[in-house]
Amino acid sequence: TDLARIRNFSIVAHIDHGKSTLADRLIQATGTVADRDMKEQILDSMDIERERGITIKANTVRLDYTARDGQAYVLNLIDTPGHVDFAYEVSRSMRAVEGSLLVVDASQGVEAQTLANVYQALDAGHEIVPVLNKIDLPAAEPDRVKAQIEDVIGLDASDAVLISAKSGLGIPDVLEAIVTRLPPPKGDREAPLKAMLVDSWYDAYLGVVVMIRVMDGVIRKGDRIRMMQTGAVYAVDRLAVLRPQMVDWPELGPGEIGVLTASIKQVRDTRVGDTITHERRPADAPLPGFKPAQPVVFCGLFPVDAADFEDLRDAIEKLALNDASFTFEMETSAALGFGFRCGFLGLLHLEVVRDRLEREYGLDLITTAPSVVYRLHMKDGTVRDLHNPADMPDPTHIDHIEEPRIKATIMVPDEYLGDVLKLCQDRRGIQLNLTYAGSRAMVEYDLPLNEVVFDFYDRLKSVTKGYASFDYHITGYREDRLVKMQILVNGEPVDALSMMVHRDRAETRGRAMVEKLKELIPRHMFQIPIQAAIGGKVIARETLSALRKDVTAKCYGGDATRKRKLLEKQKAGKKRMRQFGKVDIPQEAFISALKMD
Ligand code: GTP
Fold first, then answer.
1. Tens of pLDDT along 195-238?
2. Which residues contact 240 (CB under 8 A, 6 or more apart)?
3. Which of 267, 282, 399, 569 is deepest in the core (most CB within 10 A)?
4. Cα–Cα distance between 333 and 495 in angstroms, integer?
5. Which residues make up the binding site for GTP (predicted)?
């Protein structure tokens, strides 16, 4: 296809502002999917979503559109994941296209969570067309929202397209704006092949499917290709475009987007951002900016029932096939038995993986405290990475400890600024910058990643009622006074609850932790001390008093059914508990104890 007749774009929107509805309308309006098949299509894409789990590409589609100038255009819409954990994936997909539609709900206005993505689109050099959706709603205020887009984002919104994705109003204007206001791609058909690996996923029938954006050269079925970062060589079995299901395609040239299969066994063998070239006549340099996704948050996953260990192994191996950014290795814990130490891109990633293991594979899991990667400088001059506080060596051998720091950017309406500053301050943050855009504040903080992985994002959302946007990147490592804090229940250390903390925060954390555990651990027939300690020194202590009488006593003699029911309920509760020495600790205690504040 002639470059001048191609437009590649993504849609940037806050959740629920209508991104999926608009994508469906564009598919329909261009006749890509016949009206009567539309429902089936949507169902299909839901299957893909379920299969894919996190980086959903259900809205990636190639559209044919004949514009008002009478010319036929190819429009490629790429879907992008919206969460900060996947910032790197978002930035890669943004680099695969030249423009974005910024969809804003005209009854809600600009909301915070889209801002990070808009800035990524601007970073990637995109042309941006503002689209105001839901103008059918009586509460729609297009003029106010236009002004807001100009104030907050600094984009000219005077030519914003007004639409109702629901009724279809304005959809032809969106298609026209894509053609007239977004630039065509650039590229050299005669140059050696250079294609960006935008995304990849595992398909039960096809194996690994790789989405590519061709920059230079031409790729065809049967070509032998090389992944420039991993060095692996494959033959292209199948080349296709998405409409939105796969349709075989003879070749893809500069500016085009499509998918290929090449008997690649696992998603792990494909790296988002890698450059694909021909084995013969390769490009001399890969595309710039490649970095492999590095797990930054680690935690242990253990089966509640030790007998489920093999099932957990199977489930983890299956998930890992489809998720290159998730790492795992076996771990044994004195208290929890056999399990896995797993690495994630961030907390949401962790939660998604844990949820899938529990829901799709029916496993009951204990998750240990999330931890970042600490750098230990030993007295003998060696440097070690610490992924797990349980592996902390004798502190007398350590010279100093470094932890990862981030630069966080938070955008928030003025009225919540005070709470946000307090939250950052409480998390050992150092304020770098504070500016205003209209009634919105933009604040930048230098923060320890360790203080963010716990529940920072949840806290931020709750203190700002969801109106804050948050984005971060790791800036480097810095030395600080970090210690390992242990929790002892009835004198036994519970390794799953040990964590690295800043020395100045240890007492507060320790106190909060033992207080919480006192509430969460059921009383036993004996008294149970619950302590937090650094080295041999106890810094906080609570005592759980002994149970005085049989809980079933209040049921009197007569009511046998009720008594049995109560005992059954207790038994069911037991199943989700772990024994530590003589003490049963419910699984919820691990999760709750780690969620602070
Ligand atoms: P996520 O998939 O959760 O990110 O949301 P989204 O941005 O894709 O939004 P989606 O298209 O699912 O739309 C969210 C809701 O808004 C749905 O209930 C839609 O039916 C509704 N909606 C979308 N467009 C319009 C519109 O133009 N007018 C009205 N009244 N409702 C709309």
1. 999 988 887 788 889 999 999 999 999 999 999 988 999 999 99
2. 246, 247, 248, 249, 258, 259, 260
3. 267
4. 7
5. 16-21, 133-136
**Which of 64-78, 253-267, 461-475 is least confident?**
461-475
The tens digit of pLDDT for each residue in 150-161 reads 987 889 999 999
Q: Model confidence over 148-188: pLDDT tens digits?
A: 899 878 899 999 999 999 999 999 999 999 999 999 999 99
Query: Whose C-alpha lies nearest to ligand 1, atom 29?
Result: 134
Q: Which residues contact 60 (CB under 8 A, 6 or more apart)?
A: 76, 77, 78, 79, 211, 242, 244, 257
Q: In terms of Cα–Cα distance, which of 8, 34, 10, 39 is closest to 22?
A: 10
Rounded-to-integer distance, Cα 477 and Cα 403, Å: 5
CB of 115 closer than 8 Å to CB of 123: no
Distance 255 CA to ligand 1 centre (A): 30
Q: Tell whether the model's pLDDT for residue 57 goes beyond 50.
A: no
Mean of pLDDT over the chain: 85
Query: Which residue stretches of 287-346 are H helix?
Result: 309-321
Asked if pLDDT for residue 576 goes beyond 60, the answer is: no
Residue ranges for the binding site for GTP? 16-21, 133-136
Token digits for 165? 């994705």
What backbone phi and psi angles, to 5 degrees, belong to 556? Answer: 55, 180
- Closest residue by Cα to atom 32, ligand 1, is 166
* Residue 366, helix vs strand vs coil: strand
**Separation between Cα atoms, residue 405 and residue 77, nearest integer Å:** 35
Between 57 and 91, where is the model more confident? 91
Note the pLDDT of residue 42.
Answer: 52
Q: Can you spell out the DSSP letters for 83-143?
A: SGGGHHHHHHHHHT-SEEEEEEETTT---GGGHHHHHHHHHTT-EEEEEEE-TTSTT--HH
* Best mutation site among 11, 14, 21, 108 for ligand 1 pocket (most ligand atoms within 8 Å of CB): 21
Atom 14 of ligand 1 has which residue's CA nearest to it? 16
Q: Which residue, by CA, sits nearest to atom 4 of ligand 1?
A: 15
Q: How far apart are CA 262 and CA 283, in angstroms?
A: 20
Interval between CA 20 and ligand 1 midpoint (Å)? 7
pLDDT tier at 291, thresholds 50, 70, 90: confident
Is 506's pLDDT higher than 60? yes
Residues in binding site: 16-21, 133-136
**Quick one: which atom of ligand 1 is closest to the CA of 24?**
11
Compute the chain's Rg from CA coordinates: 27
User: 16, 19, 59, 90: which to mutate for ligand 1, most atoms within 8 A of CB?
Assistant: 16
